[in-house]
Design brief:
Layout: H1 12-35, H2 43-56, E1 65-66, H3 68-75, H4 96-107, H5 126-153, H6 156-167, H7 170-176, H8 182-204, H9 210-224, H10 231-244, H11 250-274, H12 285-288, H13 293-297, H14 312-322, H15 327-330, H16 340-343, H17 351-374, H18 387-407, H19 410-414, H20 421-430, H21 432-448, H22 460-470, E2 476-479, H23 482-489, E3 492-495, H24 500-512, E4 517-522, H25 524-527, H26 532-539, H27 543-546, H28 548-555, H29 567-573, E5 578-583, E6 587-591
Parallel strand pairs: 1-3, 2-3, 2-4
Antiparallel strand pairs: 4-6, 5-6
Amino acid sequence: MSTADTPGSINAGTIIRRVLFFILLIGLSLLYLLVTFQGLDSPKGMDQSQIAREIARGKGFTTKVLRPISVWKSGQVQEGDPIIQNANYDTYHAPLHPILLGWTLKMVDGDDADKWRMTENDTVYKLDRIVAATSVICFLIAIGVNYLLISRIFDSKIGGVTALLMLLCDLNWKFSQTGLPQMFMLLLFSCACFFAYRAVEATEEGRIALVPALIAAAFFGLLALTHWLAIWIILGFALYAGFFLRPRGAAGLAALGFVALLSIWPLLKNKQHSDSLGGTAIYALFGGLGTSEDSVMRTYDIGDSYLPLENLPFKIVRTTLLQAGDLYINLGSILTAPLFFLTLLHPFRRRSIANFRWCLLLMWLSAAVGMAIFGLTRSSTHPNQLHILFAPLFAAYGLAFLAILWSRLKIAVEIPPLRNAHFVAVVLVSAGPMVLDLPQQIVQVGKAGKRVPHWPPYFPAALNMKLAEEVRGEEIIVSDQPWAVAWYSDRTSLWLPKRVDDFTYLEELAESQDTPFAGILISPYSHSSQNLFSVYREYEEWSPLILDGWSAYSVRRLPGTLAGLDQSTKAILARYPNPRRLVDSRLVFWSISPSTGTTP
């Protein structure tokens, strides 16, 4: 059984509900962008934003974040020592989201960093808000696309309730404020599913489904160009299309071919700059198999890294199953979203509705395997979190299933005011995280004053004003948070290499190529985001320097108290003898230049 579309005239109640929905939509958008927004907090969100600024400047897909492994990979395409400047082509991120942000930044003159310089009274970087606004716009359009799709699958009532659930989903708003591409991905995925469902309808009606399947594949191709992990979703769609869409086999192969066609340009560019089609993105695999991805990206020679492949199938199955424990949260805490799996047991009357759920299931299962292989932590806003893309359609199927069960209850038939009580209950429960969290955010903003929102580890004003003035444009800052340095300071930053010997080699190389190191920035990202043992395991040779800030802060001494006890660290600091305490001893820039006396 299904709830089919019931055409009818738009009455006054419908108009009022739609007006109230749009008022709520606009109100929440302004509230999250202008009141509670506290700046970007995702490393990969900042990284993509600074790439977007380079695109807005007409420099192509270049980056100011230099990964040691990228420098090493760039050296594989040429003979002799690598050229530092040749490693500024980014081969880690998928290109489409930075391109979108680049267009947005270009429209507001975001390519001119001086126009957006922070002041002493600013706690939030204004371009952070522009990046978040782009995500919010994508999110709002995605709500409209899902309303049209779900109304087509079921009816406008379920479409409307699902749109409201999306709007009141706290996780959607959190993603929109990270700088990550998930909301843009949600828009592209929703468009792809719209045409995928059209293809399912055409097949059930005995028509050729190749055209809508190809259009769906085009959107899936754009999705893959937004996040490489989305290729796993496409594999699920291609598998379904190959067996169930007419013409059999051709639709699936055509979908894969279309995706490959869209992806060939960035893959060939990766090959040109890094000697492999996967670029440095392929090494994200280390993050899902028990090794730190950060550690691998900081490695100069990949031969020094160990990829634990023992019991690989067991690891993948185990990690995939573990995702079930956080599935409710990863689906946005929408009450009916997990009910999608129960709908697989229900015989829907319309075959298109019944068959489309298997397409969704295959795509979700494939994505879950991909997330298991490449890594997914318990953070609900993890960059590899793709469950949120399925939340609206899963929730819609769950709503339809719940509506069918509710309609069979005698109380719902005999008491007219209770006919829609199940929808009201679902909305109230699903909106709980937002209702509980939003007032606290508003109160915190009122009490915060000039407190920096994401400190530790990020202090935008210190990087945007103090650090940017200390370093010339051609110089390189070595840092444990290069994405923040590149985005807020607009300076090239090398991720702190894993080994001291690699640092020394790259230091000499940079000096010989007229791109010298200006200094070393150590921040709470390395010494305050994990326990002491994890800090030592991650940074090993650098641990005296990493922990020096906390040591000096604890005993009220000048920076260098702990670092000076280690001979190799002491030798490096002899070349960078001028510590600038940008924010007490926890954010220290060890500069090669004499102190100007402007920082305490």
